[in-house]
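yo, Chondroitin AC/alginate lyase is done. seq:
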Amino acid sequence: MTRSHAATRLREPPSRTHTPLVLPLSLLLLTLSLCAPMAAATNVFTCYANDFVDPTYAAAGKYASNLAGAQDTIVAWAEEMNSYGPWSVTFKPVLAPSGNNHDYMSWAPYQWPDCSHAGNKTVLIPQQMWKTCAYVFRDGQVNPDRTTINDFQSFFNLSDAILYNSLAHTFQNQSSSVYSQNVVRFIKTWFLDSNTSMNPNLNYAQMNRGPNGQTGEYTGILDLRGFAKIASGILTLRKRGSTDWTQDIDGQMVAWCKQYINWLQTAPTAKQAAGSTNNHGTIFVNQLAALKLIVNDTAGATTLGRAYFGGIYKNQIAANGDQPEEAARTRPYHYRNFNIAGMITNARLLTYADPTSNCWHTLSHSGSTIQSAIDFLMKTKPGATSETNVTAEIYPNVAAVGAQYGDPSGKYVSFLKAADASGFAYADDATFLWDQPLAGGSAGVTSASAAGGATGSAPGPAGPSANAPGNEAVRIGGGVPLLYGLFAMLVVWIVDLL
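structure:
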């Protein structure tokens, strides 16, 4: 799974029965009038394939005034995620083959049952089918029963919640906030609390099913790619000096990550992922380098990044900017975007670990760069491969490239403005906070909620721009306006009753 504009929530609060409430017409109209402007100011929640936000930039909390829409979206997304958390591997309804509910588990997404040779195939219950029927691979076709076990989606939700809550915390002049407290709560539940913690391995990730046993695959390493987002959040709280992120919690998290790093560097499936030359190899570096940063092994993260850009990256981009291994898949538009997102994340991780790195300008053996890959993809039509449902996957990648390489011709901002015309509202997207397409450019993308906002140079992902406003934006989100709105609704209701 990569970006989804309606990320599935698999552990929602239990439903409750309420007495139906009939709203007076005036109250209904007021409710609609209050909700309309709030909906226009933020984008629909998006689970990005992967990303790493420079913790130094985020912790400084000095955001340009034209980032108000992005900040509103981040707060809204953080609060949305908070309503569903916390998450834990112990919450899933099916145990891993080990019998230990602390073991992470997911099923291979493209594996489908073939029960043609199974006895009593018409009366097999799911548990029997998983072990009796042979499973066959159908590239790009996701078996919907994968969501029976929600560990993979839960981790996506966890990593997003940590990223957005940590960023929302930086919008306030406080050492403690509800957002930093939520980061701690979510991390303790998934990683640290003895009753709910995950064992530091992926032995049963993207597990194959069938009569020959149920074992995890190297492809399952992808499931925890969100560690890049988690590293962004943890390092931001560290640098911000959050009083909620204590030395004790930090020490426990470092200890857990060190155990998991050992598994990633020694397990056969992890080694196979590390040796992959396509997006699996790219994303493996995302994850391990991020973990190295969490455990304060900056040198290790640097070594990994350099090895990637001096290794498999060299063969990933052709002279025309295409990515041959991703182009060969059944969903090439998606996989090209997915690998580019991984490349961008690796470049950001390496640049953070080693600011002297020139990885953004490292050439493939064909003389291409990450910019070449996005330029090629911008000319590719997702409809040509029936992938219009993932059109939006390209937008953060375009913005990241524009922010890093500059946009003197305006082609990147034009591409994003075209997305605005289709209803995407890029300037209100979360990534606009760190993926500003015109860093160093001449024009801007203006947020719908930033009336009169600056449109000149703004702080890029590597840190605040010298030309950006220096005031620290203190944003609480939608809480206070919402309270006033609810109060007004109550007053109108009382008047109606009278």
